[in-house]
Amino acid sequence: MAPTVTVMGASGIIKGVLTMLTFFHILDASSGAYMIWYTVADGFFYFLPIILGYTAAKKFKMNEFTGMALGIALCYPTMVALKGGEALGTILTGTAFEMSFYTTFFGIPVIFPASGYTSSVIPIVLCCLIGSKLEKWLNNHLSDMIKNFITPVCVLLIMSTLTYLIIGPVSGIICGVLTLVFETLFNIPVIGATLGCALVGAFWQVLVIFGFHWSIIPLSYINIANLGYDFIMPGTFATPFAQAGAVLAIILTTRDQKLKKISIPAFISCIFGITEPVIYGVNLPKKKPFAAACVASCIAGALVGALGAKRYIPGGLGLFGLPGYIDANGAGLYSMWVILAGTILAFVLALAITFVLCKREEAAK
Question: How far apart are CA 365 and CA 3, in angstroms?
Answer without folding.
Answer: 26
